[in-house]
Specification:
Length: 393
């Protein structure tokens, strides 16, 4: 069966590349993936795979093999793009001005379509059920995974485990990587307004300067990380935007700050939220101002199930050779796949897409992101193989 999957992935590669290029040319932003959803539906119709629609654009397919109740494995691919103007000079460059598949979701979707085709063609040769989850809105709170779970995507039937892959631009094509336990961070957005009393810049004693207060606050917030957090617990707090004032001789009435808070421990995450709020309120008020703070709670940590991930890694060793299977590094980026991992055993792994000889070296979320499309063959074969070879029990 392993050899058959590899053969079919190779035979279907040109078709999968065509799907990926179509998706790349026609990107759609989070929760607006209507044409992407229709394209996926047309392919599942072609493969004769039944499906249903959830959260407007999400497509949930079901493939039943022999003895379909033996196990249920979910395979997930996200399908939204980013508001980035593409700078690549390639035939499949984005046709949508200012929108680009800069995070590889076109790759993920194409790989899952390819795996679905193979699994449907071979369903009389493997046991269990495979649930296909083509998910909207990974790039934007509250996260398509969260919304799909609320609509029952993990029920009827309930998966015993779930897998997803993600492009990895610092790993060479031909390789994949796995990691047990913590893989990616939680992500929360910080919105702070510091209010003071504006006035003439030459008379600061008659004002309550929100710019000065904000400068102290930015420094103080870093102490939440450097003095309250265990140094062995990865964590990041970054203020990324300061908006206040418009000229040289006027102290403004208020300053708006924005930033992000990332953590790898859910208990610390909640404690840190309270410390951030307390530090902000008390420091601003001690300097005569007023503070309003909102923490938009985002995605949870991605925590891979130890047993499932070990089994998946062993199967990957069999499929592509142990020398091509690496250890994923912890990343402070975030992924709404963490919502699935909170509900059922999950494994989020990486697919190498880099090829320095071809100049394919740019990172995700950049205007020059691209992949070595040979990676699609491996992504297709590995998703299909994991779905039928891994026993989640």
């Amino acid at each position: 069966m392993q050899a058959l999957i590899q053969q079919l992935a190779k035979e279907n590669l040109s078709e999968v590349i065509a799907w990926r290029r179509h998706l790349h040319r026609h990107p759609e932003l989070s929760y607006q993936e209507f044409n992407t959803s229709k394209f996926i539906q047309s392919k599942l119709d072609e493969f004769q795979i039944p499906y249903e629609i959830k959260v407007n654009t999400g497509v949930i397919g079901l493939i039943k093999g022999k003895n379909p109740t033996k196990k249920v494995i979910a395979l997930r691919a996200d399908m939204d793009a980013l508001p980035i103007l593409e700078e690549n000079d390639v035939p499949y460059r984005s046709c949508v001005d200012g929108v680009m598949h800069a995070c590889g979701h076109d790759v993920h979707t194409a790989c899952l379509l390819g795996a679905a085709k193979i699994l449907q063609e071979t369903k009389d040769q493997w046991e269990g059920t495979v649930k296909l989850i083509f998910q909207p809105g990974e790039e934007k709170n509250p996260g398509g995974a969260h919304l799909l779970i609320k609509e029952g995507v993990l029920e009827n039937p309930k998966p015993d485990a779930i897998f997803a892959l993600h492009v990895h631009t610092t790993m060479d094509v031909g390789k994949v990587s796995f990691r047990k336990g913590k893989v990616m961070a939680s992500a929360d957005e910080l919105y702070i307004t510091v209010r003071g009393k504006g006035g003439h810049a030459a008379s600061p004693h008659m004002t309550v300067d929100p710019i000065l207060i904000s400068s102290h606050l930015i420094t103080a917030l870093q102490q939440v990380i450097s003095r309250k957090n265990d140094p062995f617990n990865p964590c990041v707090l970054s203020i990324t935007s300061i908006q206040g004032g418009s000229t040289t001789n006027v102290i403004p009435d208020e300053v708006k700050l924005m930033g992000t808070f990332r953590a790898m421990n859910e208990n610390w995450r909640l404690k840190a939220h309270e410390l951030i709020k307390k530090t902000t309120t008390e420091l601003v008020e001690s300097m005569g101002g007023q503070a309003n703070i909102h923490i938009d709670v985002g995605y949870p940590c991605v925590i891979n199930d130890d047993t499932l991930t070990q089994k998946a890694r062993e199967q990957a060793n069999q499929l592509i050779g142990e020398k091509n299977v690496e250890e994923t590094e912890i990343r402070m980026g975030a992924e709404d796949f963490g919502y699935y991992a909170q509900q059922i055993p999950a494994c989020f792994f990486r697919l190498g897409t880099r090829n320095q000889e071809k100049g394919i070296t740019h990172g995700v979320h950049t205007s020059r992101f691209d992949i070595d499309e040979q990676a699609l063959e491996q992504g297709v074969s590995l998703m299909a193989w994991l779905a039928i070879s891994v026993d989640p029990q």
